[in-house]
Amino acid sequence: MEPSFDLGEVLRITSGVTALLIPIVIGLVEYSKKLGASGNLCLILSMALGILLGAGYQLAAFGVPDSGARWFILILAALIPGLAASGVYDFAKGSQT
Q: Given its phi and psi angles, is residue 67 left (phi above 0), alpha (psi -120 to 50 degrees) or beta?
């Protein structure tokens, strides 16, 4: 029997690491800006880095998922830092203009 999906568990697992990943992603995007990146490239970069780091953490901490529910958790755990970091970047960019 496949384990049931619990959104509360997903948020519990991802909240701490998301809080750590967002400043890392923002720092890497800021560094890329110093290297010449700008505009939508920075927005895409923040999303991609958030997804890569979020998925990397999940795989390192919990291994390769063995069920559909665990794959869904991995996808959410990867998307949450990516969306948060790109949202923070977009918000900061908008407040500077």
A: beta
